Amino acid sequence: MSLVYLQLGSNLGDRLSVLNTAVQKISDQIGEVVLLSQIYQSSPWGVEGQSDFLNQVILIDSIHSAKLILELILNIEKDLGRVRIEKWGERVIDIDILFYNDEIIEASDLCIPHKYISKRKFVLDPLNEIAPNFIHPKYDKSIAQLLEECLDEESVTIYEV
Q: Most buried of 29, 45, 63, 106, CB within 10 angstroms?
């Protein structure tokens, strides 16, 4: 079994419903959901003129390889209506693999740990909620340390339903 941290984000449609549906599909198709962060609202990262995102980080326990998890995630995104038009564009759902155990995987189609973790508060805040002591295998720092050092100034708040 492998412990896998995933980040989910949505800024189109019924964002909360999409996140909840994504979590259910992940549970059904990829692995048992062990932990879920609260849902956070954040301004779009890297672009302007978009609606705010709802974000969540989950920990799953899976029997699948990282490559197969990526394939399954892409299928879930497609099932939920994701259309890839532009990098960092608006999206119904985005699911990223943050960590796969403590492995480092660098392939043309898959980079684990996710390369922008340390630069994004919308990832670090929910990740810190459920795994503050997890050590980033490339930086040899805890998630709490990475959050403390993060220079991202975008707004990230707990989403009030």
A: 45
